[in-house]
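Hi R.,

Quick one: here's the Iron-binding zinc finger CDGSH type domain-containing protein sequence you asked about.
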Amino acid sequence: MSAPRCAVLLCADGPLVVRGPVTVEDEQGAVHTSERSVVALCRCGLSAQRPWCDGTHKRAGASGG
Ligand code: FES
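And here's the predicted structure, written out as tokens:
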């Protein structure tokens, strides 16, 4: 059985959109999991729900890169 595939979409001035259930380990070693079919990862650092994007980048006019 092969590992499930995932796809990552880079959104201009926004998050990384990941298709597929994901596990994210942050810089402190905390593990965050999501079983959703699509998740958005914060790139701007402003989300209150990190590592997930909560849309704050739009209100703040932040650029995620
Ligand atoms: S990229 Fe959306 S809140 Fe940071």
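Residues 9-60 form a domain with the Ribosomal Protein L9; domain 1 fold (CATH 3.40.5).

Cheers,
M.
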